[in-house]
Amino acid sequence: MQPFENFTGCVLPLDRANVDTDAIIPKQFLKSIERTGFGPYLFDEWRYLDQGEPGMDCSQRPLNPDFVLNDPRYAGANILLARDNFGCGSSREHAPWALADQGFRVLIAPSFADIFFQNAIKNGLLPVVLEAAVVDRLFTLAIGPRALEMSVDLVAQQLHPHGAEPIPFPLDPFHHHCLLKGLDDIALTLQQEAVISAYEARRRAAVPWLFADC
Amino acid sequence: MASAQSPGQPSAASAAAQSSAAVPVPGAPRTLYEKLWDAHVVRVDEHGTTLLYIDRQLVHEVTSPQAFAGLRLAGRRPRRPRANLAVPDHNVPTADLHLGIVDPVSRLQVETLEANCREFGIPLFPMGDRRQGIVHVIGPEQGFTLPGMTLVCGDSHTSTHGAFGALAFGVGTSEVEHVLATQCLLQRKSRSMLVSIDGQLGRGVTAKDIVLAVIGAIGTAGGTGHVLEFAGEAIRGLSMEGRMTVCNMAIEAGARAGLIGIDETTIEYVRGRPLAPPGEAFERAADHWLSLNSDPGARYDRVVRIEAALIEPQVTWGTSPEMVVPVGGQVPDPAAEPDPVRAASYRHALAYMDLRPGTPIAGIAVDKVFIGSCTNGRIEDLRAAAEVARGHQVAASVKLAMVVPGSGLVKAQAEAEGLDRIFTAAGFEWREPGCSMCLAMNADRLAPGERCAATSNRNFEGRQGQGGRTHLVSPAMAAAAAIHGRFVDVREV
Ligand code: SF4
């Protein structure tokens, strides 16, 4: 995983609650056995007017002019602003893969679905949880004649919407550490091999039926 | 959202948010969740993150290819290959199995699973094996799922297995890889919520109606950051199949996992399963399992009580499982909704579903009916649907009514009981096991604009096919809708 670096970007206001993972990346694209290439199919059913199938050349497809991602004001947006319960539904990691592939690096919402939140962190995406009223204010700023520019400072845990007060955001210290360092958590866990083996030996004695396989 | 808190997900209200997990006081009463958690802690690091031991993992073709690729890339091997069980389910066709998978992309995904299992020594039930089926049906059926264990799968409906008093939750592909490599996961303790369904259910009201009513009451984000323990007389009265239905949809309430305490119903279901401990070992295991139940006086972060007698058969009207009303109700009016964000969602949903506020639910016509999925594809579900279908005919206006058993063994059992003949005589199609039209990754799907009564768990836009409109109901309600061509109150037919 790449370390997360501070950056300045532009905000895409996706004014919907309960954006589910089927909407983020519809199931027909989950047939891929790769981790990349999902960006053009992000929000496929909202984004295009035709029915998307894997392998299509998306540059030739008819765009839905009413969908915010197709609004030229927000071209190149890399911060996604949404409402409550973003990423609800399935556990598909294809959802954060598609968001990252499209260029998003930060997601802001009043709440995220649990599995999606974990998946986002694992892929170097920063999910920012803010109070609904603060999110509301950001929507007002972002839905203007021009896109809202914002600087993201992970070290200080602050958002700097240009022309407005900085906004501090909470983050679990472990997640903060992982994102900043770009850590591979499997390698970290493997360093605990001795502790895991000791645990297994204890458990094997207590609940032998769970170890009948080996 | 007062309750927005997940393992490591901060709540908006407090910048210094940490998990509510307090340091356990020795001897204090504990919940089932706390006992399961405590028994699986390998280590707690300096950030307060727990390395949690995972006893078993279920694997399917959609969320595993990139995990195996990751292992290969790093030169890693599974720590305990036989602590995993793999099965293809999402992509498998439910008709003309002898043709194999026609779609080359789907076929590649299933073949990739088979090749990965061979390479890494993971046990697999391949297509054509009579034990093949939906992961969440075959795990319990085989006794791979046992009380007291931790179990994960790259699938959100892993919450199903919580019906056994196991801590079971869905994970992403990175975590599938983590478990393969280390048999552990990095986790934070969730909050706990007790959902008590008090008293007895009315006639014609099922486990599906309970869980839809719970989601209607607490909302799809109501359980975020929580593990839900379902309890109360109505839950204790459910069979294991019914309990699995309830826990299956805990994820639809936003919960990390669902749980139900262990009792004789649990023990008797597990006894004699192929992978359950045999003979004397089983009795010892059963004693241990019964000791895991929540202690009297155990504390929950939140308690919700629902009177069972007040629950009616439920039908969803919108594009989120929380958009649900009793069958006697009406499509709600967004104008009556004070919260503007919610009112906007309602308007979106009504436009997508092509419904008008005030329309009575009973009477809405359906084009297709789908009975199956990991929510309602078990033998008891098929019995309930067959009971309603027996001696009737699917309405002429219904284009397709299909029954898809959750596994090969469920299918065999249903056929032994003659349920398949009841369905086919009534005009239902009797299919091969798999996920099928629950998510329409195979050939079974809705055409744009088609309306479906489905026993599955998600009514999201496009879930059953682009432009398709899904109403979630119980198996009996789905069968009744097929017969009448529209939603009816199953208690009145
Ligand atoms: S039946 Fe549906 S919800 Fe269940 S595992 Fe299959 S696709 Fe997922």
Describe what this molecule looks like in 3D.
The complex is a heterodimer of chains A (214) and B (493). In chain A, strand 5 and strand 6 form a beta hairpin. Chain A contains 8 helices and 7 strands. Chain A has a 7-stranded mixed sheet. Chain A has helices spanning 21-24, 44-47, 94-102, 114-122, 132-142, 173-181, 185-190, 193-206; strands at residues 7-13, 79-81, 106-109, 126-129, 149-153, 158-161, 167-168. In chain A, 31% of the residues lie in helices and 14% in strands. In chain B, helix 6 (207-218) links the parallel strand 8 and strand 9 (226-231). Helix content of chain B is 31%, strand content 15%. Chain B has a 5-stranded parallel sheet. Chain B starts with 31 loop residues before the first helix and ends in a 9-residue tail after the last helix. Chain B is globular and about 60 Å long. The interface between A and B is large, with 74 and 94 residues. The structure holds iron/sulfur cluster.
